[in-house]
């Protein structure tokens, strides 16, 4: 699109410059009419400008059409992408529904408390030097000064 705009600008600038110059020359002529030869040159230049205008406007119209077509293409592309995203979201939603509907049911088993964890370390009380009860532990701590 920028290429079309850049291509059209010189044509528009040239028409603007020529139109301003001719307007100034005509204003000067109406303010102070000049001789016939200069007036004839002004008329010839004006006719040449008018002959050039269709070529410039035709070129500009072609560039504007190209810009419009590019925008339509982008709009169509955007519409296609939007539709594809809608389809993808619908497929995702349906797949999630299929997964949720087909989740295998699991029996909820009551949690068993592991009673063996509360037993503490296994102590062989028949060996010498092994403390077998809390009373023996308290006596040992007293003898050590605690």
TrEMBL record:
It comes from the Bacteria. SUPFAM superfamilies: Chemotaxis phosphatase CheZ. Pfam families: CheZ. Plays an important role in bacterial chemotaxis signal transduction pathway by accelerating the dephosphorylation of phosphorylated CheY (CheY-P). It is found in: Cytoplasm. GO terms for cellular component: bacterial-type flagellum; cytoplasm. This is Protein phosphatase CheZ. Its main location: cytoplasm. Belongs to the CheZ family. The keyword Nuclease does not apply. GO terms for biological process: archaeal or bacterial-type flagellum-dependent cell motility; chemotaxis; regulation of chemotaxis. Keywords: Chemotaxis, Cytoplasm, Flagellar rotation, Hydrolase, Protein phosphatase. InterPro entries: Chemotax_Pase_CheZ, CheZ_family_phosphatases. Transmembrane segments: none annotated. One of its GO terms (molecular function) is phosphoprotein phosphatase activity.
């Amino acid at each position: 699109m920028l290429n079309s705009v850049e291509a059209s600008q010189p044509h528009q600038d040239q028409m603007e410059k020529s139109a301003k110059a001719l307007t100034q020359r005509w204003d000067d002529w109406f303010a102070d009419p000049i001789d016939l030869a200069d007036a004839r040159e002004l008329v010839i230049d004006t006719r040449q400008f008018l002959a050039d205008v269709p070529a410039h406007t035709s070129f500009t119209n072609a560039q504007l059409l190209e810009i419009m077509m590019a925008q339509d293409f982008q709009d169509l592309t955007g519409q296609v992408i939007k539709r594809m995203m809608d389809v993808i979201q619908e497929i995702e939603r349906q797949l999630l529904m299929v997964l949720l509907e087909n989740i295998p049911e699991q029996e909820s088993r009551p949690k068993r408390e592991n009673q063996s964890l509360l037993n503490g370390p296994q102590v062989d009380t028949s060996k010498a030097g092994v403390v077998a009860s809390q009373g023996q532990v308290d006596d040992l701590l007293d003898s050590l000064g605690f």
